[in-house]
Amino acid sequence: MSGQTLYDKLWNQHLVKQRDDGTALIYIDRQLLHEVTSPQAFEGLRLANRKPWRLDANLATPDHNVPTTIKERAEGNSGIKDPVSLIQVQTLDDNCLEYGIEEFKINDPRQGIVHVVGPEQGATLPGMTVVCGDSHTATHGAFGALAHGIGTSEVEHVMATQCLLAQKMKNMQVRVEGELGLGVTAKDVVLAIIGKIGTAGGTGYAIEFAGSAIASLSMEGRMTVCNMAIEAGARVGLIAVDDTTIDYLGKRPFAPTAEQWEAAVADWRNLVSDADAQFDKAVTLQAEEIEPQVSWGTSPEMVTGISGQVPDPFAALDETVQRSHTRALEYMGLQANQKITDIKLDKIFIGSCTNSRIEDLREAAKVAKGKKVADSIKLAMVVPGSGLVKRQAEAEGLDKIFIEAGFEWREPGCSMCLAMNADKLGAGEHCASTSNRNFEGRQGYGGRTHLVSPAMAAAAAIAGHFVDVRTLPANDATHAQEA
Amino acid sequence: MKKFERFEGVVAPLDRANVDTDLIIPKQFLKSIKRTGFGVNLFDELRYLDEGQPGQDCSQRPLNPDFVLNQPRFKGAEVLLARRNFGCGSSREHAPWALEDFGFKVVIAPSFADIFYNNSFKNGILLITFPEDVVDRLFAEVAANDGYQLDVDLEHKRVITPSGEILEFEVDDFRKHCLLEGLDDIGLTLKDEDAIRAFEQKHKAARPWLFRQSA
C-alpha cells in the first residue's frame, strides 16, 4: 500500500463520518469571518434558533468594505461614508457581540485582511482545518493546514455544527525545482504555475506545492503561492511543514503555550506527504525558467514573462480560446504581439491578501527608495495587510520611502483588490496590481488589471510602464528573496 | 429550500468560457445583508450599458441589446447553457442567489468551478455537466430554434431535447436527494450530533492546542 499525501493525512485526522453516498462530515478547527459573507449565515442561525457550536473556533474582522484613508479610519465605523457598507460592517460587530465571537474591529491594531490576520496571530496552525467565506482561504495551506473557501450556507453550517459536508478531493502535486533567479518572487512562481496548468487545471484537486524552490520560500512567500491555488481552480493549496513553518509560529498570540508547544511541534513534523505517496496528477516547473510575470488578459492564466508579448488570439488552435483571447484584448485595449514593456499604467496597487505582508512591502520599498512615481501615474497606493504589518513597516521607515516617492500610504483592508470600498479603477485605466484577479470589472467598472509582484508594481510606478526588475541598475530589490 | 421538480424550460445560451462570479454578480451588490433581490443585477456589467449601483431602480437603466438575456426569445429562461469553468473565482454565494432570483433552475456546462458547484446545490440550483461536444451541439440547437426548451428530469438524471433525444447526466446521490426533497443540510448534519461530539472529545484529547481556553 502506498503512503499518504499531506492532504490525505489532514483529511483522515478530521473525518467525523464517511457516508455511504460518498459525502463526509469533516470537523472544522477554525472559521474566519468577515462582513461580506457572514450576515446571511448569522441570520440563518437566528431564524432557526440555533447557536454556534464552538465560539473559540471563530475569529472575525471586517476587511472587504473598510475605507483605507487615514482620515476616514480615524473616525472608526462612522468614517465609512457608504451607508450600505456601513450597515454591513456594523452587522458584523452586532453579530459578534450577540453571539460572543472574538472580533478585531475596524480600529483594532490587529484588524486586517482575514488571510493576513489569521497567520499573523497564530490562529492558523499546522494540522488545522480552516474555512472562511472567501475563496482565498487557500492561503492558510502554507502552514500544512487544510484550508478552503466556502459559501455562506456553509459558513452557517460550520457555525451550527462545527463540521463541513465535503467530498474528498483528488491529489495533485506541483513541484518547482531549482533556484529562483534574482528578482523572481513567490508571486511570479504562482503566476507561472497558473499560466502552465490554466485556471481550471486544479479543479477537483488539492494542490500540494513542493520542490526545492518552494522549500526555499519564506512563510510569507508560501502564503502568496497557496493564496492563488484557487486561481488555478483548486480550493486547497498546501505546503509541507518544515523548520520555516515552526520558526514562524513561535510566540504568536494564538499559538500553543509552553507546555503544549513541544507536543504540537512533534505532531506537526508528521505533516508532510510520505515519500511513497501517490498523486493523481503531477506537474514540474524549473525555477530557472521562471521570469517576472505580468498578466495581459482577463483571467489569471492569461499571463506571460516580462520579456514576452501579448499573444495573437488566432495563434490558438481552440476556437473557445480564440474567442476569449480576442474578447480579452478588446477589453484590455491591447494589440496582439504588443511588447509587455510597452504597456503603460495609470494606477498602481500594492496590497491584497496575496501581497500585503511585511516582506512584500520591503520588496516594493527597495525599488521605490529614492525614486519618484512617474508623472503619468494618477494614483499609486500601498495598503498594508493588517494594522500590525502597518506598524512594522512604519517602524522600519518604509512608509516614508513610499510617501517620498509619491505613493499613498493607507490603512489596512482588501481595498482595490476587489474595489468594494472607494478604492477603484476608472473605466479604461490600466493598473499594475499585486492582487490575485484580473477579471473584467474586478478593480472597478471597465478597469484593466495586470497582476504582478510587489517589486514589479513598484518598478512600473517609477517608469510609468512595465519594466523588468532584473534590469534595474544596482538595485538590491533583485535580492528580495533573501530579505 | 423548494423541492426540485421536473420541468420544461427555455434555454438561454451564454457563449463564453471562464465566466467568473465577479461577472455573475459584481462586488458592489455584495454589500447587501440579505439573501434575496440579486436577480436584477445578475450579469450586471453585460446586461446594462451603465455602471450599476446597489438599491437602484434597474427598470430605468439602459439595456445592452446584444446581451442574450435581453433578447425577447430568451425571456423567462430557466436553463442557462454555458461554457467551461463556469463560476470560477470568488466564493460569493451571491452568484447562485442571483441566478436563482432571476429564475434559473439549471445551468449546463462542460465544467464548473468547485466552490460555485457546492453553493449552487445548496440553493436548489441543479448544475449539469455534459461533455464539450454535447454542449457544442446544444448551443447549435438553441441558435437554430426559437423557443428551444429542455425537459429536465433530475429523478432519472436525464435531459430530454425537443426532438426526444435523451441526454443522461451524473450527479451524486446525496445532492440529488437534497434537491428533490428540498432538504436543509444543517438539520441533516445535526442528526449526527453524537458522532460530532464524540469526535470532538477525541480530537481535543489528541491535539489540545487546537482549542483555546476561552474566546
Features:
heterodimer, A: 483 residues, alpha/beta, Aconitase, domain 3, 2 domains, five-stranded parallel β-sheet, disordered C terminus, B: 215 residues, Aconitase, domain 4, seven-stranded mixed β-sheet, 8 helices, globular, iron (chain A), 3-isopropylmalate dehydratase large subunit (chain A), IPM_dehydratase_rel_enz (chain A), leucine biosynthesis (chain A)
Would you identify the regions of chain A where 5 or more consecutive residues have pLDDT less than 50?
Answer: 477-483
**Could you say what the CATH topology of chain B is called?**
Aconitase, domain 4
Biggest interface, which chains?
A-B, 87 and 62 residues
Oligomer: heterodimer
The structural class of chain A is: alpha/beta
Question: What is the compact description of this entry?
Answer:
Chain A: Catalyzes the isomerization between 2-isopropylmalate and 3-isopropylmalate, via the formation of 2-isopropylmaleate. The complex is a heterodimer of chains A (483) and B (215). By secondary structure, chain A is an alpha/beta fold.
Structural description of this entry:
Chain A: One of its GO terms (molecular function) is 3-isopropylmalate dehydratase activity. The complex is a heterodimer of chains A (483) and B (215). Chain A has helices at residues 6-14, 39-47, 70-74, 83-99, 114-121, 152-161, 186-197, 212-215, 219-227, 243-249, 258-268, 319-332, 358-368, 387-395, 398-405, 454-463, and strands spanning 15-18, 24-27, 30-33, 58-60, 102-103, 129-132, 146-149, 163-166, 170-177, 205-210, 236-238, 281-286, 293-295, 303-305, 347-350, 379-382, 408-409, 430-433, 448-451. Chain A is built from 16 helices and 19 strands. The longest helix of chain A is centred in the N-terminal third of the chain and has 17 residues, at 83-99. In chain A, a hairpin with a 7-residue loop joins strand 13 (293-295) and strand 14. Helix content of chain B is 31%, strand content 13%. Chain B has a seven-stranded mixed beta sheet. In chain B, a hairpin with a 4-residue loop joins strand 5 (149-153) and strand 6. Chains A and B meet through helix 2, helix 4, helix 6, helix 11 and helix 12 of A and helix 4, helix 6, helix 7 and helix 8 of B.
